[in-house]
């Protein structure tokens, strides 16, 4: 059975099951001109969107439908996480080329629904249509956050501690393995591949940090550590000094760099991108408390990777004590190519 | 200057001006991980999305950037209109191929911002990325509606009057002129082309109908009158009988059908699609009052085109009194081609 045979409305009926995982607050889900929901009282609304385009963001023969569905939602949940928010509703638009098998799309929705269910996010609507060339996905996520806990990029102050909620660089190394056609069936390569195709949004981590008090700014790592911490610096009007030896990198990334002669893992961590963990800045008097609470909550450390300094300074200090200027440029989909 | 030269962040800075036309209620617009807004108290939230794909929904050499920007937002505002709602925030995602000139994109945002300004809709965020082939646009619109005024597809009852807020079939005729390469520089062809590339969302009409009382169901005409009134019939569990002679068609469409030997204008009106006016059903005791109020508010009639009947009946009665079964199939982007 093909998409052409079942048609747009047949496809919508097919995917509709299990889209509504949190019916309370939903007045009308898929099936009318617009979805209708009841905003939560006394909370701010959040909204974010990400577009994933075949041959720009993914190669269909290197990522399963299930992984692509997971990732398409995960990158949006990560944005909500970076605001300290809770994700509520997802709106999913798909432009589907004729050669895309129905099984791939079934997998796509399976992966997306599994992640949506985990975080109690409804798939509340969207649009499905044909495409003459590339499979293209847009996901919009609506979330909410108590006003006092909203995390922006603009709140960092000189003296704050810069922290990361996870390891960096694995996703970019995983992408490299996919590009190079390396068999990723075994560890440690499968772990790197997984970091790229099945990123875990740090929603629980973002909520914990937002509620902890003392966290002054946050962002998720999509373009790369260097670029994304640059956004905090720019929006906050401050500088940043990172410590190379403190940047958390996995053993898998170290093995990758050694085995394939790929240089310093810290460079992959700084410029890689698509890690989808969070970076945050914490006021110095709250840092110990927040780090301890984080470790207790998640059983792993909140990594202190640097400090907020005076504007004009934007550097990483190497193991030899030498400061190297950081580049604010991260991944740019218009100027770089796979 | 090209998109490649200015990059993603340069492009975002370029389009950012005048995106915020209703700053009250917005906590953070473009520039953070997610946009932040303050939901209106005592209203339901509405959300809808539409994907427009080059070579499926439009041909880039037949529609200007300004028209495409207008239309991409208009089709979403039309969905909000069909719920009786007010549009509030738009989230705009663009996948841009390398050969798309910056001037085309500037026009796109100009057209979109002009329409957004008219209805006080903020462009609050989105995503911009590259594309290897087609220009692809996803717009998500968030709106709101007082709960008592929400219009669904599912409220029609036997005996209700079926009405349309505008003329039907012009848009499809305009598309045909574009496909056939007819010079649309002069009337009446330019009027038909305009109906296709610059549809006017019936937001004011939708609000008026929602507030009037007695309107039991509504939908906007995107797939075509026959298909869309079919959705109301299906969701409401009723039948529909339309009267062909009551279906409002323009003189331009009549001229088009005569000049190009294109048959009965009523067929274009029934199966055309993309009209983006509204269909609604009104309880019989309220119909006179609502129609009078509509005509007074907008200076044109609310067209009575049929009635809601028992389930199982789904037909149009021709000028000769013969009933012809209606087809529920409208435009299907998977099975039909331009």
Briefly note the CATH topology name of the largest domain in chain A.
Phosphoribosyl-aminoimidazole Synthetase, Chain A, domain 2
Total beta strands of chain A: 13
Largest sheet of chain A: 7 strands, mixed
> What overall geometry of chain A do the principal axes of the alpha carbons give?
globular
The largest contact between protein chains, plus residue counts on each side, is: A-B, 76 and 76 residues
Q: How many whole angstroms does the radius of gyration of chain A measure? A: 20 Å
**Highest-level CATH class of the largest domain in chain A:** Alpha Beta
Oligomeric assembly: homodimer
Which segments of chain A are poorly predicted (pLDDT under 50) over 5 or more consecutive residues? none
The termini of chain A sit apart by 33 Å
Round the mean pLDDT of chain A to the nearest integer and report it. 94
CATH architecture verdict of the largest domain in chain A: Alpha-Beta Complex
Number of domains of chain A: 2
| Sheet with the most strands: spatial strand order of chain A | 8-10-7-11-9-12-13
Structural class based on helices, strands and sheet pairing of chain A: alpha+beta
Listing every helix as H and every strand as E from the N terminus to the C terminus, the arrangement of chain A reads HEEEHEHEEEHHHEHEHHEHEEE
Q: What is the percentage of strand-forming residues of chain A?
A: 15-25%
Number of helices of chain A: 10
